[in-house]
Amino acid sequence: MALHFEKAEFASRLARLTEKMKEEKLDALLLFAQESMYWLTGYDTFGYCFFQTLVVKSDGTMALMTRSADLRQARHTSILEDIHIWVDRVNADPTLDLKNLLVEMDLLGARIGVEYDTHGMTGRVARLLDAQLTTFGQIVDASYLVSRLRLIKSPTEVAYVERAAVLADDALDAAIRLTKPGADEADILAAMQGAVFSGGGDYPANEFIIGSGADALLCRYKAGRRKLDANDQLTLEWAGAYAHYHAAMMRTIVIGEPTHRHRELYNACRETIEAIETVLKPGQTFGDVFDMHAKIIDERGLARHRLNACGYSLGARFSPSWMEHQMFHVGNPQPIEPNMSLFVHMIIADSDTGTAMTLGQTYLTTADAPRALSRHPLDFIGL
């Protein structure tokens, strides 16, 4: 089997999950998030674009319901043994097949948690599921139960995140080598992704973000490429990915002569991220991290140029996003604990002057100060 973890680690994760389920008085849990299935069993697929779910009972029994195309995938990449296939057909309703499976698993009338907040659960599936199960048992939203367990990384997971960070650094090296006046964004993007693949990494859970000129102020990938001018700005946000574990980075590179505004915004980013390092440790919360970000940026008169979040937890993620649920935004009470992999980013987009500046890297939390996983310093990059 193509497993990335020892079976003992999967057993430990299942034990943690069932303990939490008992605390929440859940008889069973329906997992729709692919990263939850991967974390718990090793199951690795993009088949979650169709209906599939992993049923987990509080006694540790597990059963997967999926399509025929993923039968061998589940057998080869996971520890799962009980796999059920729903059949593609006209007017198919796999939630009916699921209800029949739940009856077989003696869950009629049970209290069942459901992962609703995931890209593996479409609105249509949610409506069909609720229609089938509303009178079947007590259905509760358990979207974040596994997500919270995944926040703390095991030693093996930490090693994968560290490897992903190496690949992210390699990608930045590749970008810097090619970035100059006249360089094509397409070549830079190809070199960055190629560096990750050449290092044994994976596709990231979302596209690398690349934009120059006016596009440097964007926070999302879009189609279309351009060549760099003699004086230009290039914003890059990317991640190394290894065994689906991510380590993200972000930089704005200035080509030619930096403007005074570029320097001013860079200094604000650098000061803020260094201040955040003082609160990115146990005893603080995700909300505290955002408050530090907002305080410094706003004191510099840049409130309307910043975002309403400044980072998030990272881990093993699947398309369409490498972002975890837990983000640095106002009021988030999530405690910071050791062995979390957290991406901190500073993004300032000054649309008035057309100036972009970003700075970001992934950290591993410890019992005290966080450890930056990148070998690259946070220095201004001008080429």
From TrEMBL:
InterPro entries assigned: Creatin/AminoP/Spt16_N (IPR029149), Creatinase/aminopeptidase-like (IPR036005), Creatinase_N (IPR000587), Pept_M24 (IPR000994), Peptidase_M24B (IPR050659)
Keyword annotations of the record: Aminopeptidase, Hydrolase, Protease
Chain ranges of the Creatinase N-terminal domain: 13-152
CDD domains: APP_MetAP (cd01066)
A GO molecular-function descriptor: aminopeptidase activity
Sequence ranges assigned to domain Peptidase M24 in this UniProt record: 161-366
PANTHER family: AMINOPEPTIDASE, XAA-PRO AMINOPEPTIDASE P-RELATED
Protein name: Aminopeptidase P family protein
